[in-house]
Write a structure and sequence with these properties.
Elements: H1 33-38, H2 45-56, H3 69-88, E1 93-94, E2 99-100, E3 106-107, E4 111-114, E5 118-126, H4 140-153, E6 157-164, E7 176-177, E8 180-183, H5 186-202
Parallel strand pairs: 5-6
Antiparallel strand pairs: 1-4, 2-3, 4-5, 6-7, 6-8
């Protein structure tokens, strides 16, 4: 037999390979089932600030547009994973559950963190670019949300855990986790709360 020549195996037959048939099927899953089970009825803080930003940025936050259930499910999965990661690595973080503001609406911070001092923890999964920091106007809704949590709980500090799925869309297109701490003044917390309440009353939500 010459070098490189494959030995003939007449007693062995090659398997017959049939073309695959691939069919897409509907998953039939309610991707937000867990959230629907834990969310209480009534007015929520998210109802107020979502309505406000639909008015402030109507082309970005379109009235009546349904949420992207897949993206929301990915965000919920990231929240669950990060929460367990923080706890196993010695950070005192817990989901506090729902609170009710004195005006009667419900709000639910992602985390309460106590590592020497208390702060609100907010977990985000976003397709926005990480090129600009969290003070950019494109993150204004995040800030409004967390400021109202801080106002109601009388905690002026917050830690954001934003996971940028596509990095900065420039030299980095891989996911980036870029936590930041923010400390608010009493004046800006009060102004944000007043803005939300004025909007809610104007829209007859309260």
């Amino acid at each position: 037999m010459l070098y490189g020549q494959r030995e003939s195996r007449p007693d062995k037959t090659l398997p017959v390979i049939l073309p695959m048939k691939i069919t897409t099927v509907a998953h039939g899953l309610n991707l937000l089932w867990e959230q629907s089970q834990t969310r209480s009825p009534g007015l929520h803080c998210s109802d107020i600030y979502n309505s406000l930003y639909q008015e402030l940025e109507p082309t970005r936050y379109v009235v009546g547009s349904p949420p992207n259930a897949t993206k929301m499910a990915m965000g919920l999965a990231w929240e669950t994973y990060l929460e367990s990661l923080l706890i196993t690595q010695g950070i005192e973080a817990k989901r506090p559950g729902e609170f009710t503001a004195k005006e009667g609406y419900v709000f639910t911070p992602d985390l309460l963190i106590d590592n020497g001092h208390s702060c609100i923890g907010e977990i985000k999964l976003t397709w926005m670019s990480s090129h600009e920091d969290i003070s950019s106007p494109k993150f204004a809704k995040w800030m409004t949300q967390v400021k109202d949590y801080c106002y109601n709980l009388k905690i002026p500090r917050a830690r954001f855990y934003p996971l940028y799925v596509n990095g900065n869309y420039r030299e980095r297109r891989d996911p980036e986790l870029l936590p930041v701490d923010v400390e608010f003044s009493a004046k800006e917390l009060q102004e944000t709360h007043l803005m939300l309440m004025n909007h809610a009353r104007h829209r007859r939500m309260l």
